């Protein structure tokens, strides 16, 4: 992994932060759904370059220009994300700028991958096969941006379906390559850490102070929010991460791309999405706790936090199933408990919801640490 790739990750996570800003501006079910659509499209933009970086160094040769173009376009997309659904009567509305920026990212990826695959006919054919759904997806993005409103959401959801659904089917041609399992694992782990960093910011930023310094209640509430982040980190990196790495390394060359695709490109999507929603939910819940700790939290705060946790734990339970053939028992149980918590939290004080969330996440982390739920042993 190179510093150039880490720089790319920072731009990607900046875009994730802008998605959180979009959802936080007018929190509600509609904004949560729109944020999810943007998150899915951004995930494709990031994960595509993981496959490229696993084949060639992104900081050398002709691919540098393509990666810089993609990073710039991704940055531009991030700038307009909070306004992606705003009404605009001019020719260059935020939605259209976003759609065109994502199109530039895809064009940069395809051109760089075709250049890197010039000595591998099967890989080059795989890239060209994938060009069909990618092109159709870009058309849907632009059409949706022009139409706006509900039609925009529908078109962008179809674009995602083409990206991942049709792309997954076409990958059965088996032209992809995973040259370095360690690189693949490291890149996905790093972006998860950076995304968790955004949750840390959500737990610490915006907390009020008195006379220029933090108050004792503020410190306590912020610490509980930080404890949730620590538990999420612990559950993944002290759980299935190492054994999944071993499974990917042991897999044969023909089997390895499918494991990487299902376990990381697809399997890590619910983990990152879960962390994004936990970041939003943590921020909203902390605001509610400090405003009225004895009153129930807002519904959108509960939905974002518990929904994000359920998504994260559900993905963490499925991940070892894909990589090692066994479900992660503790994450699956934690996901179910989180759903129950989401129902109960609508009627209990916001502070109690925060405390119970921290206890739940901590308990899951300890259980995984003791080997109760990692469940990700390599297949023989």
TrEMBL record:
The chain crosses the membrane at residues 31-52, 64-85, 91-115, 216-237, 258-280, 300-320, 332-361. It holds the Pfam family LtrA. Keywords: Membrane, Transmembrane, Transmembrane helix. This is Low temperature requirement protein A. The lineage of its organism: Bacteria, Bacillati, Actinomycetota, Actinomycetes, Micrococcales.
